[in-house]
Amino acid sequence: MTVQTEPTERAPFAWKYNLLTVVAATTAAIAATTSASIGWPVWAMFMGWVAFFTRGHSASEALKSYTCLVVGIAIGMAAALALQALMPAMGALAFGPVVFIVAMIVVSLRALAPVNNVPAYFLGLITFFAAHLEPGWLAFCELAGVAALGCAAAWLAHRLQGAIAR
C-alpha cells in the first residue's frame, strides 16, 4: 500500500499556519515581557488575553469584555471587604452569604446587554482573588492595567493574524 502525500497543497497551509502561530506566540511573549518588566504578574496579563476570546473579536467587543473583567475585579474587591467585615463574627460561614450575593449579581448581569459577558466577570473575580492583594485603588489599577495589556495584546495578535490570513 502506498501513502499518498500532497506536499504542494499542504506546504502553503503549513507555512501560513506556522506563521499565524508565530504571530500569536510573539505577541504573547512581548506582552509577557512587558508585564514582567513593569512588575505586573504575567499570569494576570493572560487573564485579559483570555477575556478577549470570551466574545467577538472586534475592538468594540474587546472593550466590552475588558469592561466586564474590570467590573469583576471591583466586585471581587467588594466581596473581600465584606468577608473582612463578616469573618470576625461568622468565621468561614461568612463565605456563604458573600458568595451567594456575588453570584446573584454576576449571573444577573447576563441580562445587561452589551456588558453581559458572565465569563469575563468571573475572570475578574478570579484575577482579584488569585492576586492575593489587599483591596484598594492601587490593587485595582494594577490588575486593571495588566488585564488591559493582555486584552490589547490578544486583540493585536488577532488583527495581525487576520491580515496574514487574507
From TrEMBL:
The chain crosses the membrane at residues 20-53, 65-83, 89-107, 114-131, 137-157. Keywords: Membrane, Transmembrane, Transmembrane helix. This is Membrane protein. The keyword Cytoplasm does not apply. The lineage of its organism: Bacteria, Pseudomonadati, Pseudomonadota, Alphaproteobacteria, Hyphomicrobiales. It comes from the Bacteria. It holds the Pfam family DUF1097. InterPro entries: DUF1097 (IPR009476).
